[in-house]
């Protein structure tokens, strides 16, 4: 009985050490904001296609004609990832030069493909867009489709009262793992305008990390076993 009582504190310390190790491992895997290295998409539209202004991604850094409606753009970054979030309606911040904060599309459901430097486990997207409530034929998207690694998830968007821009937060289910993410914007019979897209993800757990965690736990268990043996030898029977 005395030996059992003497062993309890050692076993308790063992459990605390193992729990702390697992907690540190879990904390390291929490999702965090991540930035794409580039995105590909059709350019926005403008006056040539019935717009009052030009809603191009004029500052896009990749290849493609940023002054041509619906021109394919690839290999760069621009308005959708520049950190500038529009807080006013399109007609108050856009211009004929196409340098405003929105990228807008009409007569199409654009597909935007974001590329990242490594494979990630995606958990959330936040998409800032205009909600002109039909003013100037611009309205909130009716939904989005997100695809990563061949797995897709659809989202319906509820249009709130008023016409102020707002953010749609898309929470992804498990299994959205890959180095690129495809976002399709679903319109009503209107134009839609986005100003920013942000991502939360975490690195894909590597086999080596799992091995190291196992070795760490094994070391804790071994140290605990040795401590129990020493404690048992030192206690009177």
Give an account of the 3D structure:
By secondary structure, the protein is α+β, with helices and mostly antiparallel strands. The chain has helices spanning 2-28, 90-93, 207-234; strands at 32-34, 38-42, 72-76, 103-105, 111-129, 143-148, 151-156, 166-171, 177-186, 192-203. Strands 1, 2, 3, 4, 5, 6, 7, 8, 9 and 10 form a 10-stranded antiparallel beta sheet that branches. The protein is elongated and about 85 Å long.
Helix count? 3
Unreliably modeled segments: 1-9, 18-28
Distance between the termini: 9 Å
Q: Helix coverage percent of residues?
A: 10-25%
Write the layout of secondary structure elements.
Elements: H1 2-28, E1 32-34, E2 38-42, E3 72-76, H2 90-93, E4 103-105, E5 111-129, E6 143-148, E7 151-156, E8 166-171, E9 177-186, E10 192-203, H3 207-234
Antiparallel strand pairs: 1-10, 2-3, 2-5, 4-10, 5-8, 5-9, 5-10, 6-7, 6-9
List the main descriptive attributes of the protein structure presented here.
237 residues, alpha+beta, ten-stranded antiparallel sheet, 10 strands, disordered N terminus
Give a concise summary:
The protein has three helices and ten strands. By secondary structure, it is an alpha+beta fold. Strands 1, 2, 3, 4, 5, 6, 7, 8, 9 and 10 form a ten-stranded antiparallel beta sheet that branches.
